[in-house]
Records
---
Amino acid sequence: MQQTIVVKIGSSSLTSDEGGLNRDKIMFFAGELAALHRQGYSVLLVTSGAVAAGFRQLGYTSRPKLLHEKQASASVGQALLMQAYHEAFARHDVRVGQILLTRPDFSNRKRIHNALMTIDELLRRRIVPIINENDTVSVDELKFSENDTLSALVANLVRARRLLILTDTDGLYTADPRKHADATRIDRVLELSEDIFRVAGGSGSMVGTGGMRSKIEAARVAMRGGVPVFIGQVTEPGDLSDAVDGSGKGTYFDTDAHNLPMKKQWLGFHSEPQGFVAVDHGAEAALVTGGKSLLPAGVKEVRGEFHPGDVIEVTNTNGQTIGRGVVNYASWQLQAVAGMSTEEVQKRIEVIRIEVIHRDEWITLAEKHKVHDMTP
Ligand SMILES: Nc1ncnc2c1ncn2[C@@H]1O[C@H](COP(=O)(O)OP(=O)(O)O)[C@@H](O)[C@H]1O
Ligand SMILES: N[C@@H](CCC(=O)OP(=O)(O)O)C(=O)O
């Protein structure tokens, strides 16, 4: 099976503070990615830089702050960015395709499934997918704003062998190295402790947005999905291959979490619950430790309006969330049969499956947080 590598390149590595693309850098990165491609890897690129590439063309003197200004800049810049990549990769006989995603795409099972099918087809045909946020349609409160999280979600989606987050610093330091000359690099992180979040600061450049903090957040998402992460710098030919092989200039984040099956990943990280049910002690034990499905008999309370196929959250009698899953009942049906035996339910209503949530379409909170979940 071909190994998949996701590489994220930040604005600070592709553009200057004054705006505009640095074509030499794009040429360089395309060469590095093409080398991985030649080695037989399936390569996906998550790239920032649309806003930074475009804003000068709209007459702004520095990176704009308002949403509509950023969106207009991205609309110009994204085309320039793709054109530059297209030309740079063509020099190595590598073809590229553009994929623009938004955060809600990840919470819609059909849409993200379709995106994955497109990615798979591109990779099968040895085309490098180039991914960015669809800035011009992203709504402020739902925006990724930086691409670090986007790259982690993509890495989980394609079950990458490694996620490489490239930036303008050679890894995570004990403090922001731009401000603290005595800071030292942390070469390997096995657990995302609160200390790690504490040392990671904001962006150091005028064009970058998330800084080290958003990269560590992204590492957490990828590690939970079972994808090891590298955060660091690629400046010389061969650096990217070294980063893949484990000898790169940066910090490695290892994970012992296993890649969750696709459906569980979607349930755990992307789905948006449409309602809630509270279950009794017996049903809680069946779901959390018994590996069983949820039956109507265990349901105590139903809240929200949902339909078969929606995702709902399940709480215990103390109101604590224990997990979530795909529901086979409409909320009104479940309200009518909550607490009843299977026999009674079958007499009263017609449902395709008797289980309220089938165990194959369920994820417990513990499963979701397999990797140490330290909130900063
Ligand atoms: N502990 C830290 N170690 C390394 N870099 C840090 C740290 N804290 C903050 N930073 C800053 O994060 C910056 C990289 O993030 P950012 O500017 O958002 O880049 P990008 O555009 O590549 O996403 C570095 O240039 C550095 O100034
Ligand atoms: N989608 C935006 C990303 C914004 C951004 O600066 O991200 P990053 O450089 O990853 O911190 C763009 O292409 O400009």
---
Amino acid sequence: MSTILPHVEFPLTRLRRNRRDDWSRRLCSEHKLSVDDLILPVFVVEGSNVRQEIPSMPGVARFSIDLLVEECRRIADLGIPAIALFPSVDDSLKTEDAREAYNPNNLVCRTVRAIKQALPNLGVICDVALDPFNSNGQDGLVVDGYVINDPTVDALRKMAVVQAQAGCDAVAPSDMMDGRIRAIREALDEKGLIDTRIISYAAKYASAFYGPFRDAVGSGGALKGDKKTYQMDPANSNEALREIAADLSEGADMVMVKPGQPYLDIIRRVKDAFGVPTLAYQVSGEYAMLKAAALNGWLDWDKVVLESLIGFKRAGADAILTYTAPDAARLLARGHH
Ligand SMILES: NCc1[nH]cc(CCC(=O)O)c1CC(=O)O
Ligand SMILES: [Mg+2]
């Protein structure tokens, strides 16, 4: 040091000491991201040998069942515990009563059977909501312009039963109707499907971050208006605790907060209040933001992926649904953290 420094006061506590070297940074690290924390959402489409890139989600594609099974084999080999399955349904099968949702031979059920046959140990989670099968793109049945609760729940419980009978490990109602967890639990138990888990999208917000997902499943074009009469107001957080409490009392095995990064405060409150398995969904729009910036050379993809995921762990999430799961798993396997 060439310059003479002026007199300084010496701090007794130096928090920088533990940050000085890699070994002490590692010892003092409070949270760890592991491949065990990851769930990959995947999109399936009719046909064979089909792979369709999704323009608003670069690096994510829809696959026909045959290619999706191969993809799932790679996912399982990376050590990712589970996938969440979403169908992109042909427009000709979409109706106002969304009855294809509970056809035991629909695209979702055929996909579940194929994946579970090839990869019995990979967790398969099915989404329970009517939007992929609904000609108006809403998650429920619409009468006079309003999504009606109880008849929607009746359709949802039939949907959950055919998915569970096809062999999925968990059903994940993402519709935000009231009372659907109890109705689904009772319907599953009645059929002897007592071990099918219910992962509730309990605190799901009416978010603009779902845009790319609606492209991926093809529900965006049909959707008129918004989902504000059933998904939550982004301004609310006490209400999220009431939603979670209701779904736990109705029999939810795990609960989810969605979207993820703009709602880290909700994850923390839910974890502190209930201490139950709490999942976060880093949704399509969050993926698209990071990806677009990385493709422009504005952000370092590998680093922002791991930083965004450790943020969920720090907030209290036990697991994260993320389109980055394969990249994150590869980075973690190479020792990044
Ligand atoms: N029931 C629909 C559903 N299930 C998962 C997502 C969004 C997932 C994502 O954006 O990645 C949505 C979209 C919506 O509610 O309109
Ligand atoms: Mg609810």
